[in-house]
């Protein structure tokens, strides 16, 4: 469909220009002083910038988004490996990836525009393993290799599921994922995200992947009014829920638990954000706050 491809190309170019704009200074809820796994709490301000300033290192195979002061208070930083949509580069998603880094996450974004098989994504873990063990590296002893997530958009969303076949990956966030993947190959918790008005990856396609994930804890969220390009740039309405999910599974942030789990989960009743929301039986079995 030439018209759709033309609109996609224009949208990606505009997003790229926006993504390279100067990111806002990191801020956090001043009342949130507790720490979770060594990473400062942000209360429940998932969509606001986190407590870390961010540096970006653009290399041949990966672009790394990371806290500028890694390990300054003895903390270690979990990892997210990222996959781009078809024809895209990490800069298209720069503001979203910076946002996650401001919350204390090291993001290893594969530079490839064809990420589906997740080869370069998984190689990002290898790079960080080496640097974490290298006394001459700024990453030395500062990477939490026990807590790794995979995430991506469109083709990269499928790649996020494919990357989760790696035993080192603990959770995945497929954003508007393409169909070339098989959830049966992994058993990590999944947060599937669709866009209500996505005409490229229809919500029904994302829901089919979700329904094929009955063997693992899975949540399906359909963002109200979102099209296929709504998640690029700063992530739009995808930003806060993905941040909350990653903080819960990679940092053990208990402030995020009640947004997804338990009988009174916050996101379950948020009809302004979601046009569709489901949790499968394994997700329903995860207790909410207070073990309820």
From TrEMBL:
Keywords: Signal. The keyword Signal applies. InterPro entries: AB_hydrolase_fold, PET_hydrolase/cutinase-like. Residues 1-28 form the signal peptide. The keyword Signal applies. Residues 99-261 form the PET hydrolase/cutinase-like domain. Gene3D superfamilies: alpha/beta hydrolase (3.40.50.1820). This is PET hydrolase/cutinase-like domain-containing protein. It comes from Streptomyces hydrogenans. The lineage of its organism: Bacteria, Bacillati, Actinomycetota, Actinomycetes, Kitasatosporales.
């Amino acid at each position: 469909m030439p018209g759709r491809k033309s609109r996609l190309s224009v949208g990606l170019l505009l997003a790229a220009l926006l993504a390279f704009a100067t990111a806002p200074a990191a801020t956090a809820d001043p009342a949130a002083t507790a720490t979770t796994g060594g990473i400062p709490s942000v209360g429940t301000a998932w969509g606001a910038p986190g407590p870390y300033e961010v540096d970006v290192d653009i290399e041949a195979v990966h672009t790394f988004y990371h806290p500028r002061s890694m390990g300054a208070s003895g903390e270690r930083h979990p990892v997210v490996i990222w996959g781009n949509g078809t024809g895209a580069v990490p800069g298209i998603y720069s503001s979203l990836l910076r946002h996650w880094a401001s919350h204390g996450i090291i993001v290893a974004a594969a530079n490839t525009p064809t990420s589906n098989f997740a080869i370069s994504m998984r190689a990002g873990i290898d790079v960080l393993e080496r640097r974490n063990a290298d006394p001459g590296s700024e990453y030395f002893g500062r990477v939490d290799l026990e807590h790794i997530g995979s995430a991506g958009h469109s083709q990269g969303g499928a790649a996020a599921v494919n990357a989760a076949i790696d035993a080192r990956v603990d959770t995945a966030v497929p954003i508007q994922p393409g169909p070339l993947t098989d959830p049966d190959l992994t058993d990590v918790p999944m947060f599937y995200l669709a866009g209500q008005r996505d005409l490229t990856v229809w919500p029904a396609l994302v829901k089919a992947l979700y329904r094929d994930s009955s063997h693992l804890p899975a949540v399906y969220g359909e963002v109200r009014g979102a099209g296929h390009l709504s998640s690029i740039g700063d992530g739009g309405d995808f930003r806060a829920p993905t941040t909350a999910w990653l903080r819960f599974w990679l940092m053990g942030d208990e402030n995020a638990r009640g947004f997804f789990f338990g009988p009174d989960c916050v996101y379950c009743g948020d009809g302004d954000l979601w046009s569709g929301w489901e949790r499968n039986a394994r997700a329903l079995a995860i207790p909410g706050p207070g073990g309820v």
